[in-house]
Amino acid sequence: MTTPITNRNENVKKVLLLGSGALKIGEAGEFDYSGSQALKAMKEEGITTVLINPNIATVQTSDGFADKIYFLPVTPYFVEKVIQKEQPDGILLAFGGQTALNCGVELYRHGILSKYNVEVLGTPVQAIMDTEDRELFVKKLDEIDVKTIKSEAVNSVDDALIAASKLGYPVIVRAAYALGGLGSGFCDNEQELVTLVEKALSFSPQVLVEKSLKGWKEVEYEVVRDRFDNCITVCNMENFDPLGIHTGESIVVAPSQTLSNEDYHYLRKLAIKIIRHVGIVGECNVQYAFDPQSMDYRVIEVNARLSRSSALASKATGYPLAFVAAKLGLGYGLFDLKNSVTKETSAFFEPALDYIVCKIPRWDLGKFHGVRREIGSSMKSVGEVMAIGRTFEEVIQKGLRMIGQGMHGFVGNKELHVADIDHALKDPTDKRIFVISQAMQAGYSVDRIHDLTKIDKWFLHRLHNIIATRDELSTYNNIDEIDTELLRLAKQQGFSDFQIARAVLKDDMDNAEACNLKVRDRRKSLGIVPVVKQIDTLAAEYPAMTNYLYLTYNGTTNDVTYLHDHRSIVVLGSGAYRIGSSVEFDWCSVNALMTVKKEGWRSVMINYNPETVSTDYDMCDRLYFDELTFERVMDILDLEQPHGTILSVGGQIPNNLATRLDEQHINILGTQAKWIDNAEDRHKFSAMLDNLGIDQPRWRELTDMADIYRFIDEVGFPVLVRPSYVLSGAAMNVCSNTEELERFLKLAANVSKKHPVVVSEFIQFAKEIEMDAVAQNGEIKAYAISEHIEFAGVHSGDATIQFPPQKLYVETMRRIKKVSSQIAAALHISGPFNIQFLAKDNDIKVIECNLRASRSFPFVSKVLKINFIDLATRIMLGIPVERPAKSAFDLDYVGIKASQFSFSRLQGADPVLGVDMSSTGEVGCIGDDTSEAILKAMLSVGYQIPKRSVLLSTGSAKQKADMLDAAHRLHNNGFTIYATGGTHQFLSDNGIPSIQVYWPSQPDRHPQAIDMLHDHMIDLVVNIPKNLTSTELSNGYKIRRAAIDLNVPLITNARLASAFIRAFTTLSLDDIEIKSWDEY
Amino acid sequence: MLQARKATLILEDGTRFEGLSFGYEASTAGEVVFNTAMTGYPESLTDPSYEGQILVTTYPILGNYGVPPRREKDDVSEFYESDHIHARAIVAQDYSWEHSHWQADRSLSQWLTEEKIPGIYNIDTRALTKHLREKGSMLGKIVIEGTDDVDFYNPNLENLVAKTSCKDVEIHGDGDKTVVLVDCGTKHNIIRCLTRRGVKVVRVPWDYDFMTIPYDGLFISNGPGNPDMAQATIANIRRAIELGKPICGICMGNQLLSLAAGAKTYKLKYGHRSHNQPVRRVGSNVCYVTSQNHGYAVDQTTLPADWEPLFINMNDGTNEGIRHKTKPFFSAQFHPEASSGPKDTEFIFDEFIALL
After folding, report:
1. In this complex, how many residue pairs, one in chain A and one in chain B, have their CB atoms less than 8 Å apart?
2. Lowest mean pLDDT among A25-29, A746-750, B88-92
3. Would the N or C end of chain A have less CB density within 10 A of its end CB?
4. A207-211, A483-487, A966-970, B103-107: which range is least confident on average?
5. Looking at chain B, which residue has its C-alpha nearest residue A337?
6. Which residues have CB under 8 Å from B183's CB, separation 6+?
7. What is the distance, to the nearest Å, from the Cα of residue A687 to the centroid of all Cα atoms in its chain?
8. Cβ–Cβ gap A348/B278 under 8 Å
9. In this predicted structure, what is the pLDDT of residue A886?
10. Strands, E, within A901-964: which ranges?
11. Residue A490: closest CA among chain B residues belongs to which residue?
């Protein structure tokens, strides 16, 4: 046996790791997980680590993960600066998604890595380029006779047309060097091709036109290779949705279900052949199209880096791909490493699963105006869930509940309104799985659904089993009469208690919770309870002390022996990433776990999001990778019998369980359920504020239009309108006039006693302020007040936030503190909370209060360098805490949190910001002043400093005036200003020269704004809608959308635009200091 | 709800697992073993090495892709590893009543019924596997409701090699070189792997005196049960060793070659049956993922001085192959012919052919 030490590259003492920046569609939390694992691997080797990642909400940018953290953009410019300063020996490019990979390739091409003697660890850059450049890739695989999809690389629309006519329609278009299929799509004809290619060319110099293989199976293998040429495939996965739907948009199962042994190993062998030929050292994935009628295949692509799929595969198998890949990058062989689950057997092996997992994407398309609901070759989903079980029925039903959009599983849901089932099956949208349910209930056969969807019949038969069981349950009318074996079967097929109750009681479900409990009691009395199983990578072949668990009804014995020592603290995680809840709550959850453990308790996590660090079984003493429904949480609490349960660090999902868990006498740690309810219930909260004499915007819950008008007469337009039930589109809206109000309410739902509408006065030009704090027994122990750059009206999750505040009156701050203390005392808060305020002049009004950690907790914790979650967790554990000595007034630097939008992925969506959140991620950067911090932050979310020209179209008179200073600055700094009519006039009146451009609605006037965007003559677009009326929105829509589609930076808010312009006209790139977190 | 008949798996220590029947409805008995492979039930069921055993699949869902047709190609089965099912029964958590695959011509249930083999599902196979892992492989029986009970049956007391071996000499393929394949219960893919390489294969019964055949190389197949039962084969191999022509063995072949060389074998607690066994070539950094199916192993400390271990299991350190230090004799405990399982070690056949 060789000794491990000799294989390690001993020259590497300091390593730079590139992160992936803000979460965006196609690049989300999975890279926090892979980066964290890589850092852990380096740490274990005693290697110093330097991390560049502006995503301040991540776990990897926390204390204890990297030695040095730079909250800077992951771009060649900044990375070079950091390399210059830190002089690392090696660089890791594979752990930060496409962002890190692209940046690494650039650094390599420009000779920067060789200039500073930085060794690329793991897969060589040449191999990366061979897989990223389509033409090189095809050539490379041709060398070993591996079939790829016939495609032609083109650089122009004309060439694309020629290529497509040669291949024959339908064709698929892909942009090279783009993440998650950006700019990709299917084209059935020339017209569609021209539109798509033009757009794709704006992202990428090269576009690929390929023959479409719609309807083939899509299968993926995760492959690992060490430098000794030893290879393993850790996992294979099969898409439920056949080719044509991006793998990130597909329901995916692991392992494959419809491949025979011959199929499986044929593709496995090819994957190994490919990885060897390409020369990967570490991990890559190989995606195949596989003919359902023969063994014909095509390689779709190879990702020479950790990916969303590899994160999923790690969670699906328990094999830590990123950790192992990082070690292989240091020179180790797979044979040197141990299986991290068994700790005894070798890491050179292929996991054997004795369960099935199912990944389901989470879309939030309802949040966007104008977006197309069809799913296809480009990714639109914002998150995903993974369900684990022992039958397909069980995992699909679990998964459909986990995505958290009010669905109860495959059946038992509110009926979907599908106009044309055939069409909805054939042209899939985010709702297709529910359309299949509807079709089956309408009597469609498996064959017919297969013909329309090309989904393998195996999956469809399995889904049909669920329908059959539902039908059989429906023959009963009383929960006590359900046949025992049928009840057991339903649970084995993943039915929730609610689904069973609904199938039996039909419309007789006035008190759903009571009905659920009735089912629960009945089945518990019959001994029908789930069992806990371990994920051990070897299907129980070897003993494993694994803490990675799931629950299933397909089994009779628990793998875990419970001590019932009441030493467990259960922390409920945050579920699927979605707009409004993502990595920030993972950070909170992980930090709570760490504190729980540090304080000597058994840390227990429940969560089901494969993209997270909290679902890394290394992070806690016990991980239940399972649902966060009341039913499942109760199942786990029944088994675990913990000392207490923490609901306040995982966002809204756990928070919503408070009352029901309390009714079951669960010990909720921290603020008690009654007080949570007092904050959540609008009426109770409002009454409390009135009692305390705290001001709030006037609001009313109303049930008919006459009352709504009467209320508006009182408060005046604009108003904020929140219907309680929404059919489609945004959940709330600002209405400026009668026409808008009626249109919105008609679109949303009818107003009725059953569906009241909440109407609030909307205060314009008010500042929005956040109070993030931690209290103990109603007394605030730590707090952070931060201000929004934008005026109120932009959702707090989309706003640019500044901490500590730079422009608040001391008086305002004092009032906020006072009001917060009153609320904390009144609600007996023990733990984290957040209050949002409006401030105008010195008046403050409370908009909202959440008795849980908020989105900005990691940001303020890291800027202030006081870990609010650690503090809150200690409080929840009942440990006396000291008030931290430091306050925000002591900081001589500024933090800016900026939002990342993914509009480029959401075809058709209007990229305008409003009261509903639309950002998918965020960054947080620190600077010596606002301008420096804002410049870093804006560059981090993809803005560029304009070189020559800016297009201004600045909305109402007030907004135009607000932007006058910025316009002056642009002019004085030599920028060419293009402006639309009104703005042009306003600028002339104020002595600022500009060139007038015309709206699309004035087609015979020139120059046209959109033409100029197409011709890349504009470097930045500032387009501010006057108000939110439909005419105004549609007028600017085309320009905004064109900016997004042509990859030109766009700002739609006057105050943010001013701040950004001020920043880049006072500072240049060179002025930005390269300082790590600890240097502030 | 589907009305399947109740079936109970009873282990010799009295442990019971209640499930449902999806195969042939008659009770049966055998040695209960588990396999952690996630695919390959048609191959496994027809693998003669499972003779007398009740096969538990740890992968919970069984039967998804049905069963390929019973067809012959070049005098061997095209899709199976022998001409009939050797396992006594198959046990899973969940069964796919509806299958889907372009090659399938019937369901697993139909096939089992045709071959009179019981299959049961709705069994906590993970609990069962852990039980077998802790207590070791043990005897068991499946009693199907409404059918007659049976006695426990221990296949290891029988000469299973004799039972599964061919009865007459057969010729497969054609070529300049002749390989004698001693059929101890050979999988058809061993024959396919040899003939594909352009040699003439003379397949002989386990106790056949192959020294009477002029051969260029000797190949000893896999097979079921206790290698000590195949004394006749061991005696013949000893003579072949003296002759000195190339010898290769797989699985049972590895054990028989070791016994012939003078080493000893022993029964593993619960054997290796999976597609993911890591094996390292001794003295190198070269590792392979292998397919395995064996209950006995070679005690490599008992190898004579002129022999050495060729491969080692990276998980438990057991022997995975031996070779003679100077002469062209080597063998593998794993299955280079795969089927089912990974095909990473097929080079064993190339190495053997190169010696001829």
Report:
1. 178
2. A746-750
3. N
4. A207-211
5. B314
6. B165, B166, B203, B204, B205, B206, B221, B223
7. 36
8. yes
9. 81
10. 921-927, 949-953
11. B1
> Phi/psi at B281 (nearest 5 deg)?
-75, 125
Q: Are B338 and A265 in contact (CB under 8 A)?
A: yes
Q: Which sign does the torsion angle of CA A740, A744, A750, A754 carry?
A: negative
Query: Which chain A residues in 465-524 lie under 8 Å from chain B, judged by CB atoms?
Result: 469, 472, 483, 485-486, 489
Least confident of A345-354, A754-763, B149-158, B344-353: A754-763
Residue A475 reports pLDDT greater than 50 = yes
Q: What are phi and psi of A644, to 5 degrees?
A: -165, 170
Q: Suggest the residue from B15, B38, B79 to mutate for an interface test with chain A (most A CBs closer than 10 A).
A: B38
pLDDT at A830 over 90: yes
Angle between the N-to-C axes of helices B231-243 and B252-261, in degrees from 0 to 180, rounded to the nearest 10 = 70
Question: Which of A655-664, A693-702, A910-919, B211-220 is predicted with the least confidence, judged by mean pLDDT?
Answer: A910-919
Tell whether the model's pLDDT for residue A491 goes beyond 80. Answer: yes
Q: How many helices (H) and strands (E) does chain A have?
A: 38, 38
For A:265-294, CB contacts with B below 8 A are 265, 268-269, 272, 292-294
Q: How far apart are CA A757 and CA A690, in angstroms?
A: 21
Q: Do B94 and A335 touch (CB under 8 A)?
A: no
Distance CA A793, CA A787 (A): 13
Q: What are phi and psi of A272, to 5 degrees?
A: -70, -40
For residue A573, the number of C-alpha atoms closer than 13 Å in the C-beta half-sphere is 33
Say if CB B126 and CB A538 are below 8 A apart. Answer: no
The number of residues making up chain B comes to 356
Tokens of A974: 């030599």
Kindly state the greatest CA–CA separation across chain A: 85
**3-state DSSP of A35-85:** HHHHHHHHHHCCCEEEEECCCCCCCCCCCCCCCEEECCCCCHHHHHHHHHH
Does the annotation count B134 as an active-site position? no
**Mean pLDDT over all residues of chain A?**
93
Q: Enter the tokens of residue B280.
A: 């390292």
The share of chain A scoring above pLDDT 70, in percent, equals: 97
Tell me the three state secondary structure of residue A89. Answer: coil
Question: Tokens 């802790």 sit at which residue?
Answer: B134
User: Residues B81, B193, B251, B272: which is the catalytic one?
Assistant: B251
Q: What's the confidence (pLDDT) of residue A1030?
A: 60
Q: Is A214 exposed, middle or buried (0-12, 13-18, 19+ CB in 10 A)?
A: middle
Query: What strand order describes the sheet that includes A90-92?
Result: A68-70, A48-52, A14-18, A90-92, A119-120
> How many Å apart are CA B39 and CA A721, to the nearest integer?
55
Nearest to B1 among A228, A390, A485 (CB): A485
Strands B217-220 and B178-183: parallel
Burial of B29 (0-12, 13-18, 19+ CB in 10 A): buried
Q: Is-above-0.90 flag for pTM?
A: yes
Q: pLDDT tens-digit profile of A426-471?
A: 999 999 999 999 999 999 999 999 999 999 999 999 999 999 999 9
Find the distance separating the first CA and the last CA of chain A, reported in whole Å: 49
Does residue A68 contact residue A86 with C-beta atoms inside 8 Å?
Answer: yes
Partners of residue A977 on adjacent β-strands: A950
Is the pLDDT assigned to residue A726 strictly greater than 60?
no
Share of chain B above pLDDT 70, in %: 100
Q: Which of B15, B33, B35, B39 to mutate to test the interface with A (most CBs of A within 10 A)?
A: B39
> What is the Cα Rg of chain A in Å?
28
Residue A915 is encoded by which pair of tokens?
């009261």
Side chain identity at residue B121, one-letter code: Y
Select which of B43, B81, B320, B337 is catalytic: B337
